[in-house]
Amino acid sequence: MLKMRLNRRIVLLPAAIALCAGVALTQLPQGIQKVTSVEGITEYALPNGLHVLLFPDDSKPKVTVNMTYLVGSRFEGNGETGMAHLLEHMLFKKTKDGRDVKKELSDHGADFNGTTSYDRTNYFETVAASDENLKWALSLEADRMTGMRIEKELLDTEMTVVRNEFEMGENDPSRVLEQRVLAEAYSFHSYGRPTIGSRSDIEHVPIEKLAAFYHKYYQPDNAILTVAGKFDEAKTLAWIAQMFEPLPRPKRVLEKTYTEEPTQDGERSVTLRRVGENPEILACYHGPAGAHPDSAALDVLGEMMSSAPSGRLYKALIESKKAVGAAMGFESMHDPGYIIAEVRLKGDQNVDEARDILLKTIENVAAQPPTAEEVERAKARILKEIELGLTDSESVGLTLSEAAADGDWRLLFLDRDEVKKVTPADVQRVAATYLKSSNRTLGEFIPTKNPDRTHIPPTPDVTALLKNYKGGPAVSQGEAFDPSPANIEKRVQRFQLSDGTKVVLLPKKTRGGTVVAQMIFRFGDEKTLFGKQAVGQLTGAMLMRGTTQKTRQQIQDETDKLKAQLRVSGGVNSASAGMETTDANLAGALRLAAEILQHPSFPASDLEQIRQQRIAGIESGKTEPQSLAMLELSRHLAGNYPRGDLRYVSTPDEQIEDLKKVTIADIRQFYQQFYGGSKDSEIAISGQFDAAQIKPLLEELFGKWKSPAPYAYVASPYRKVAPLDRNIETPDKKNAVLVAGELTQMTDRDPDYPAMILADYMLGGPSSSRLFTRIREKEGLSYEVQTALEVPTEDDGAELLGMAIANPQNEPKAEASFKDVLAETLKNGFTAEEVAAAKKAWLEERQVGRSQDGALAGLLMSRERYGRTLEWDAALEAKVAALTPQQISDAFRRHVDPAAMSYVKAGDFAQTTAQK
Fold first, then answer.
1. 833: part of which helix (H) or strand (E)?
2. Could you tell me if 333 and 290 are in contact, meaning their C-beta atoms sit under 8 angstroms apart?
3. Residues 384, 6: contact at Cβ < 8 Å?
4. pLDDT at 25
5. What phi and psi values does residue 62 have, to the nearest 5 degrees?
6. Span 720-732, mean pLDDT?
């Protein structure tokens, strides 16, 4: 997987660092030395050069192991582009001693991946916390470090998978445009080449070069091992010493990359012409390295320019209806990086006018200095995202890769500290330094008599920069909480508000005092909501645009002040709100959500912005294979309901037509007719909060808010659907998609439901599934292949869906393999070995899922809707655990009929035929 650096650093870091004050170890294993400790993260060094970062967090029963190698596409030479990413894929194949990496990851129920960027490659797995799982993960990374099979036989199948991933990116004009702009901006430095490489290099790289790259860089002295989560530090260090110290420090010396991009001396241009619907404009300016002091001010500048609704680009382009999207950010990297701005337009908007506004807005910042209010607002939003992120050990395990790649993992904290110090003068200075026309790459060239050039400062000495750095205080600890259904039920509190809304509360101590709240209010029925899909969608989209007491900007300022992430939205038959904040701010966040839901102002000036953005998104899908294929299949399976019925699936043109008809009066009328709570509404809160304080507050805020239109479920009962086999032509798209689906009669109360869950999991779930193993691993036809089983509670129209992507030339092979796997499974059933492995992995995935407060609140709310407790989940898991291979195979045969399966394929098949 490619790590696409499309946002400024602080957002790219999943806004994330969870910190904990680690307990100092009194005795270290022989040879291991402590290097430093910052905000609960402690660094150790082994004699062979491996560095280890330990971050203990007992609050959640999971542990993340992340191995970062300080090598990425920056280290590739000519003819070797994409080699670092290709090697990333190879490390999920086979070890020299016979270990099947993907199978082991799936068997342990791991949440795993690998990512490649310009400056580093990392591999990580998050598993349920146990000594067994942690020892296994450490042993796997020790084997992967020097013990992988880098052989032609394995490369031949994986190369086609990577090429398919390359083709998937070629379908995305936005991604290709960015690649072309960077290629023009960088004349010599490797940052001008996409990490995925060129197609020819992917196809022809010699196995000898790939193996040499592996043996050179995948060594202990070029790696950082991070362990984050619930674990015993002393035991973990002992296991690390046992597994990694035997790997010798290599005798070779790693050369530093030395290419420096020369100062740009004039505007540069690039034009991309491809099939698509919506124009885009990119403006790129060279910037400093991530470790440079200017990076913090550039982060603030990007936020000040991009944020809605106060950002300068937003006001100049979106508010004025000259574009539908605009953003800007600084991309920090090990070597001098870049500032990039993006504008998205609808097909009927003026590209020349938007380009002129974009450049004037960006390059006039120095002449129109930032105000103190603009800078403080941007800083507050950045720092809020960081602070909310300081609560999850898994994020730490992954985030540290980015800072380490920039020069040192402690840059993560230094950046945060530097953002706090940024002044309006700092932002004006960096804008004047870097945002110059002579430092710009865009779509045209203009000769300049007296060029005004930007000289980019060199990468700082990071060691000297961080010599005496200590960091700030650690975030407060949470409790060790067992996420089993039985333990959750011991803590849960349930009650109803005066209007009938059901409430479920789960108070517990969390790291940083974080808490998550979710709520949904349902209304209307099949008759009253007929023909109201468009107005319902737009009503929900306008909720956060202002209230009778607050403007949109004031709402955003209030969420930043409350250190909350708040989302309020609605659809045709429901409105919802979700928030993540801290214990001290929960009451304020709930009051703000109630104000948005109950007192929206629906500013008429915002309707057209939202309408055009939605239309632009619909138009973009008109040429995309996956959108078109999924739409065709959905329409076929949905049934022959009349247009306007809630179950009718509209075409893109029908959606656009309906959106264009909606007026602001329609929206206000829809709100008055439908919005409010009822016995069919639910609220769930999970995390650190005072239940005694929150109960009366919920009654005050929502107890008397009742919908005028009672809710009634709109059933979609099972019906027999004739199979469909259809091809859709999508010219100039290098990647094709296959989607498949059929209906089966089942509810989640059906005796076959537990068996079908596990059958679907083994057929097309994790990377050890049958379809993934056959189509991706064995045949190398597809980067992505999966299935999904959707089973309702209130009616019996269940769906089994499948999907695979492939080169248009390979789509028939992928389809044939898909059908062959289906037929073989129906004929021979499932084996005892794969059933045992699937049970273990599925159960551990559910346990890890319940350890996340956001997922847990959603689970509690969904169970409450049907009067269920988590005893239902415990019973389901017990039923799955007791299943035999024969029971699963028999259920699969009862509910899956190959003759009833529909197939839709979309791609540039005509071009493929012409090439033959």
1. helix 832-850
2. yes
3. no
4. 66
5. -145, 160
6. 94
Which tops the pLDDT comparison, 474 or 640?
640
- 3-class SS letters over 438-465: HHEEEECCCCCCCCCCCCCCCCCCHHHH
**Sequence-distant contacts of 458-465: CB under 8 A, at least 24 apart:** 458/260, 458/289, 458/336, 459/289, 459/291, 459/292, 459/334, 459/335, 459/336, 459/407, 460/289, 460/291, 460/292, 460/293, 462/291, 462/407, 462/408, 462/411, 463/408, 465/291, 465/414
Domains and CATH numbers, the chain: 23-244 (3.30.830.10), 268-447 (3.30.830.10), 485-702 (3.30.830.10), 725-915 (3.30.830.10)
pLDDT of amino acid 387: 84
Q: Please say whether the beta carbons of 488 and 319 come within 8 A.
A: no
Rg over CA atoms, the chain? 28
Asked if the model's pLDDT at residue 223 lies above 60, the reply is: yes
Return phi, psi of residue 770, to 5°.
Answer: -65, -45
Q: E strands, 257-385, where?
A: 268-269, 280-286, 325-331, 338-344
Q: Which of 3-17, 285-299, 377-391 has the highest mean pLDDT?
A: 285-299
- Amino acid, res. 735: N
Residue 79 confidence (pLDDT) above 90: no
Q: How far apart are CA 312 and CA 297, in angstroms?
A: 16
Query: How would DSSP label each residue in 496-518?
Result: E-TT--EEEEEE---GGGEEEEE
Q: Tens of pLDDT along 99-120?
A: 999 999 999 999 999 999 999 9
DSSP, res 198 = -
Examine the pLDDT at 5 and tell me if it is beyond 90: no
Q: Please list, in sequence order, all residues whose beta carbon lies within 8 angstroms of the beta carbon of residue 658, skipping any fewer than 6 positions away.
A: 533, 534, 650
Show the DSSP H helices in 43-151 as ranges: 83-90, 101-107, 131-146
Average pLDDT, the chain: 91
**Mean pLDDT throughout 243-263?**
91
Cα–Cα nearest to 261, from 340, 330, 333: 333
Contact residues for 101 (Cβ-Cβ < 8 A; gap 6+): 91, 92, 93, 94, 95, 140, 144
Q: What is the DSSP string of 838-901?
A: HHHHHHHHHHHHHTSHHHHHHHHHHHHHTT--THHHHHHHHHHHH--HHHHHHHHHHH--GGG-
Percentage of the chain beyond pLDDT 70 is 95
Residue 422 amino acid letter: V
Indicate the helix (H) or strand (E) that contains 726. Answer: strand 725-729
The pLDDT value recorded for residue 753 is: 97
Query: Per-residue b/e over 562-584, b at no fewer than 16 CB within 10 Å?
Result: bbbbbebbbebbbbbbbbbbbbe
pLDDT in tens, 354-399: 999 999 999 999 999 999 999 999 999 999 988 887 778 788 778 8
Its pTM stands at 0.86
Rounded distance, CA 717 to CA 355, Å? 51
